[in-house]
Amino acid sequence: MEHWNEAKIKDFAEVKGGKRLPKGKQLIKEPNSHPYIRIRDLGKTKYLQLNSEYEYVDDETHQSIARYIVNKGDILISVVGTIGLIGIVGETLDKANQTENCDKIINIKNVLPEYLYYYLISSFGQDEIRKGTVGAVQPKLPLKNVQDITIFYPSIEEQERIVNILSSVDEKIEMNNAINNNLAA
Q1: To 5 degrees, how large is the angle CA 24–CA 67–CA 106?
Q2: So where are the chain's domains?
Q3: Edge-to-edge strands of the sheet including 14-16?
Q4: Is 36 left (phi over 0), alpha (psi -120 to 50) or beta?
Q5: What is the assigned CATH class of domain 5-184?
Q6: Kind and range of the H or E run holding 177
Q7: Is the dihedral of CA 52, 58, 62, 68 positive or negative?
């Protein structure tokens, strides 16, 4: 790590919060063009993709929380309850709404989103996340503390190599899990 850079997230990206549903509004199961990403949707796979478990908001609710949409490639981090779950917004969730219980990391410069994802799920990243967590009864990771998470990163070329290796391992794990699930069935 001799030639690596050290920076806080706020030095190379923006961090924005999510939005609570307006009072009296509820999520709906009927699919429409406004999926709503919740904490329970994070931490399962690197890329968040629309599936049958997602719930939605109606058109009116979507309009009232339209400033809190996510775009493909944004990184989401859970900041209340189960803190530190990470996911990258996939193509099928481009323009989805985001819960107030997660922040989005956007406009990332000099760091590949996939590298940042792997860093944040690593023991180094999770330690940084724990350092920023406050509260005993209901743990919370304030937005300012997300901005202040320190990461170490190499050149873009080295980040690409790291991401390629870790993605390859992820693919092998997914294939192994699929085989195991098939054998169990």
Answers
A1: 130
A2: 5-184
A3: 14-16, 102-106, 75-78, 86-89, 47-48
A4: beta
A5: alpha beta
A6: helix 156-184
A7: negative
What are the pLDDT digits (tens) for 44-80? 889 999 999 999 999 999 988 988 999 999 999 999 9
Quick check: 17 and 165 in contact, CB under 8 A?
A: no
Which is nearest to 75 in space by CA: 32, 101, 108?
A: 108
Gap between the Cα atoms of 37 and 24, Å rounded: 19
**Which residues lie below 8 Å from residue 63, measured CB to CB, with a gap of 6+?**
none
Q: Which of 16, 17, 38 is nearest to 26 (CA)?
A: 38
**Residues linked to residue 89 through DSSP beta bridges, in sequence order:** 48
Do 61 and 20 contact (CB within 8 A), yes or no? no
Residue 89 φ then ψ, to 5°: -65, 120
Sign of the dihedral defined by the CA atoms of residues 30, 34, 38, 41, in that order:
positive
Can you give the pTM of this predicted structure? 0.90
